[in-house]
Amino acid sequence: MVPKKKEAHELQKIVDIDRVVHEPARLLILSYLYVVESADFLFLLRQTNLTKGNLSSHLMKLEKAGYVNIEKKFVEKIPRTLLSLTKEGRKAFHEYTKRMKKIFMELPG
Amino acid sequence: MVPKKKEAHELQKIVDIDRVVHEPARLLILSYLYVVESADFLFLLRQTNLTKGNLSSHLMKLEKAGYVNIEKKFVEKIPRTLLSLTKEGRKAFHEYTKRMKKIFMELPG
DNA sequence: TAGACTAGTTTGCATTACAGACTAGTATGT
DNA sequence: ACATACTAGTCTGTAATGCAAACTAGTCTA
């Protein structure tokens, strides 16, 4: 009989946490998008205090993961980038926070 | 009058979170050390399911941050490495979890 | 038409996390 | 005696990451 894989505690599952969401800067971005439904680049830039380059690369990463939608358009000749959560992203964020809350309840300290 | 720096929400502080603790593998390691007071390399290896190389480098990182103490000794001709939290490490872990709990309470979802 | 501003993207770099190869010695089997 | 397996780690190589500064492209203003 092959030894059954030991049942992992909630705590041990932390190593499998979604790294895309776990990164603090992205968690912050996702938190904003989760509540506002749609935001532009500058709004996020101000709220997060990230640099432009950094914000841009995090958004690209989130897009590649299928978590945010990046829509570029012009408003009176000025380019505007609109960001919004995808259904996937909404789910991922929710899963992540659910998991983390559980973990922190189990955690000592 | 110089504009006062906007008061950051609890949420925004997440970007300043202690990255040494935030890394899932290390959070797991610290959680074990927080409760057992002292553990050896193999114990952590089994509990965490990390590879040896990975565990080793995480421990070195924690040591460099001043969070864990690495004591090497021989027990009946067999080398044994004992790990324990330093006072600093205990404090850092506690601060981290306190901060994260607050953040997750504020978080939507 | 020069300078400043808006709105980002691209590039370069230093740091990470991770696993696999390697070291060094002990215990066991034949 | 010699090989194999185990204990206990460390060292090395690599791909990915996060970050900021430099750059692009166009608009507005004095």
Question: Care to describe what's here?
Answer:
Two copies of one chain form a homodimer. With 109 residues, the first copy, chain A, is α+β, with helices and mostly antiparallel strands. In chain A, β2 (68-75) and β3 (78-85) form a beta hairpin. Chain A has helices at 19-22, 24-36, 41-48, 52-64, 87-106; strands at 39-40, 68-75, 78-85. Chain A is built from five helices and three strands. Chain A is elongated. A three-stranded antiparallel beta sheet of chain A has the order 1-3-2. The model of chain A is unreliable at 1-7 (pLDDT under 50). Chain A has one domain (18-103): Orthogonal Bundle (Arc Repressor Mutant, subunit A). The longest helix of chain A is centred in the last third of the chain and has 20 residues, at 87-106. At the A-B interface, α2 and α5 of A face α2 and α5 of B. The structure holds a DNA duplex (30 and 30 nucleotides).
Q: How many strands of chain A?
A: 3
The CATH H-level superfamily of chain A is Winged helix-like DNA-binding domain superfamily/Winged helix DNA-binding domain
Please describe the biggest sheet of chain A, giving its number of strands, its sense, and whether it closes into a barrel: 3 strands, antiparallel
Q: Please identify the structural class of chain A as seen in this structure.
A: alpha+beta
Strand coverage percent of chain A: 15-25%
CATH names the topology of chain A as Arc Repressor Mutant, subunit A
Our count of helices of chain A gives 5
| CATH architect. name of chain A | Orthogonal Bundle
Stretches of chain A where pLDDT is under 50 for at least 5 consecutive residues are: 1-7
- Oligomeric state: homodimer
